[in-house]
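Known limitations

Files may contain more than one protein. Parsers should not assume a single record per file. Below, a two-record file is shown to illustrate correct handling: read the sequence, read the token line, then continue until end of file.
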Amino acid sequence: MSSEEWTRRCDGELVAGKCRALRARWRTASLAAGWPFPSDWASDAVDRVCEAVVRGADPLERLGELGAARAEAGVGLAGTLQDLAALHAAMTGDHDGLVSADPDAVPAHLVRATALGWADVVARLAVGREVQDPLTGLTTLSYLRTRLHELYRLADASGRTPDADHALVEVSLDVRGEDRGYPAMMAMVLAADVLRSVFDAGETVSLARSSTALVLAPRGRPTADRCARLGRLIERRIADDPALLMNGPVRVREMALPPAHEQACALITSMA
């Protein structure tokens, strides 16, 4: 082994040893500060932060990755910054004793890098939730309005009316106990599976309210036949649940799209 290779090996072992020591101090300080799930603390982002600190590199990029990793794991901002305070204490405190995490002692540029990494992920996740109802999996009315806006722009550019190519389908359930909300929403959860199986070619299926769904469907497929089949399948699915009782049949009706986008938005808002 050449002297250069020996130097590189020793340097790598030295860095690895220092990383392990920093990581251990950081973890101990974080757990002492209240980290609730010890087995979930470790991550690749932690290791990259330790290596950057030990090598004397600028840790800001790695701290952004740490904030993002914590957000992906569902850790709140307060917990993430408390963990950062534990790192700062491990970096600067007495290495021979137990270090104490103090969030107010962390320099602002470290807090900013970590918080921005956390916020980027939370913002991305929020956008994903915003377009989809978490219970039924159907898209929201906000998403349907966006799709209608795109559809009306396309119709205007092509010189056609929106109603020539698309229709709006309303699906309403009349479930007993709807005033409490729960039976209606549970029925809609069951109906949502049927809606996705019948309208399975990229149609926009949205939740208007707990007992009403709307479908933006192209006219290229036999919409009337699908609507009739949809009602039967939903009634059959709900009938399988003895806790859900219908006051009447599922109402499925096909509606023409209004000439203007503003009118279409007013129409779907009136159904919410």
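...continuing to the second record:
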Amino acid sequence: MLNRLDDFPIHQTPEPIAHPATSDRNVYDRTWFNAYEKDGGYYFGVGMAVYPFRGILDGAFSVVAPGGRQYCFYGSRRAPAERTDMSVGPFRLEVLEPMRRTRVVLETNESGLSCDLVFSARTASLQEARQTLWSGTRRVMDATRFDQFGRWSGWVETPEGRIEVDAEVCLGTKDRSWGVRNVGEPETGGAPRKEIPSVFFLWTPLFWDDHISHAIFFDDAQGRPLVREGFTAPLYDSEADIPGVEDGRDHRMATARHRVDYHPGTRLARYAEVDLVDHDGTVRTISMEPILKFQMKGLGYTHPEWGQGMWKGELAIGHESFDPRQLDPLAHSHLHTQQVVRTRDNEGRTGIGVLEQLCIGPYAPAGFTQLLDGAKSREERAGP
């Protein structure tokens, strides 16, 4: 099965590009973006992915409007054979210039959401370390990801009115990933699991005046590190100033550490810190204070109906809205969040960025022992 990309010298196997190198049914290829005003006045997220062996292409666009309500558009279709076709009904992504500029368009539809936006990079592409996670003897995640930091221009129409998106105040991160991870309807059959499943994930892309910092964490149920990574990289004035796909100016840390303080009775961070530990032992401590919450289910993550990679038919679109502040924080589909955060480091620098978190199941450092129990208050931790 051929498509346009087969005309480029990019093949990694003897097969056409449309043929994944793995036979795992959960292979995927995903583009994702976030965006937020510097003062936390609004937030929007974008996601689109193809699942070759599931035969599905889906996408979502979701906005937290200035009043605090979150609006969501969802779309799903049978995956096209042509990999450069990144459209689902009224929603499409256009790569205007690879690793420089991307256009996001959502035409008028019944959700009341629409947009015409352009993401412009301000960093080179930054590849995260390969992320391989196991459940017993089976790989449940094996993925490569790269990030770019940039800014947005254009407009977003919501049921509450139009948001003019100004590149001077709207920042964001692009996330491209591909490989294998659990998506779609769960597999059935076989022996039931003995243990309670556990996932702990933090992801912290942050903007400073002249550079970015980023840290990525996966932990096991005891808090032992599965993935630890931190780096910094320079910010350029515009995409035209970026010297290449990779510029060689990113600085990789020896390791990174995290500390999270949760709202009592929830798994939502009310404050967090990250340590970037350099190879000479120098520690840069970054504090993060949340100012806006975005529910990742608005982009399909853990969504009970519009979950990623779930078959919805030849073409289906849907929508919903809710107030993120009013949802049950311990419901399974509400645990995955991004929060816009104000940041400060131990040298007095200030910035803005995002704290993404997902914690399901037991996690010893936080005192979680069940699938969905919440954090204890200081009084409860102190005991009688």
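Parsers that stop after the first record will miss the second one. For reference, the second record is described as follows. The longest helix spans residues 378-382.
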